[in-house]
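Section 5.1 Outputs to date
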Amino acid sequence: MKEKQDRKNQNLPEKMTAMIVVLCLVLAALCVALVYDIFADRVSAFRSAAEEEPVEIELVYAYQNPQWNSAIENVIQEFEETHTDIVINYEVNYEDNVYEDILTRRIARGELGDIVQLKTPAAYAEVGLLGEITDAVAAEVSSVYTYDGKIYGVGAVESTWGVLYNKTLFEKYGLEEPETYSDFLEICRTLKNNGITPIGIGGSDLWHMEFWVNHFFHTDLLTSDADWLKKCSAGEVSWTDEEAATMMSHLYALCADGYVAESWLTATDTSLSYKMTEGEIALIYTGPWTAAAIEKLDDEMELGWFYVPDESGTIYATDNLDTYWSVTAECAADEEKYEAAMTFLMYFYSDEVYGELCKASGTFPLTNLVLDYEEEPLQQDVWEAFQSADEKVSVYIGNEDTPEEFERNMLELVRQIMNGDYSVETGLQKIQDAWDASAAGGAS
């Protein structure tokens, strides 16, 4: 009996050791399970965070005027508020240059972005820089840009250029909107004789020169030949021809006759609004968007609008259909970015958003949206003048029929001709030389 009890006592430490070992194993297993759960939770949280990380895309567009810039920024801000999974990074591109030159430098740096504003998408599509626009987005607008049977651009807006004028001055001196170009010159003479500078030009901004240059291009060259630019490329017409001389003589005469503010060469496009409200100038060749800037400075100023007619009284309304949204090939290759880009474009064309943008930027919609201009009488005047014009012209210097870099070189030469640095004859020869050099791919 005693011997049996002794054996029990001897086995007790062994049992306790075994129990401790088991307990330790259980605790270890619990610790492993706990660590695993914590790790798993953290991995899950990390994955969730990664899945919720917003998609970032870059929007590249031209600074055309303060109203356009502000309207685009507002659309982006409102879009991000309702689409928290997408971030739109954007950069305003503005220099004393033409937009295409800026894009050329961005391409060289590999920074064309994801959504990009273009004038002529085909030039970029043919070298593989663009991706296709979806049918759903293309169906929203009436103006698309196709290349090789594929859609590479959708029209952002339709716009026009004309003359904004101070109605009070016109009434004071008994002036009426011109019916011929001679009438327009008579308006300028009357204003000048009464100590008022008729015309303001923002010559410091190279792109601003397009307004008058393309006006006379329309009235003096395209009237006789709608394919003038194509024929110039074929060597059938030249910038030294009589029609081009007439165009440049009209431009030069505006300055030579004292109808343009003397400070035009250093004036900026935006400064013209201030000059108008201060009574320094009476007329600005611009777009209707400038009216908003003038009204902010002087909400009592009454503005009018007209198109400058040609010698016979024909009204050629500039019909700008050269603002397209395209997506880059790099964006199209990234499924998430491409989907985000298409989502933004669909939002851009939604009625409420698009309507506000068109009104704010003084442009016309390219969707089925019909805008009510009851509270914007000037916009109504612009729309009615645009619709009643004898002809609408979409051809312009700088389109796809123009050699790369020619537009910039020409506008610089035009400034010099208008400033008297070159005669009309010498200046036109230099413009033709610039065309030939650009067409050949060389420097002007």
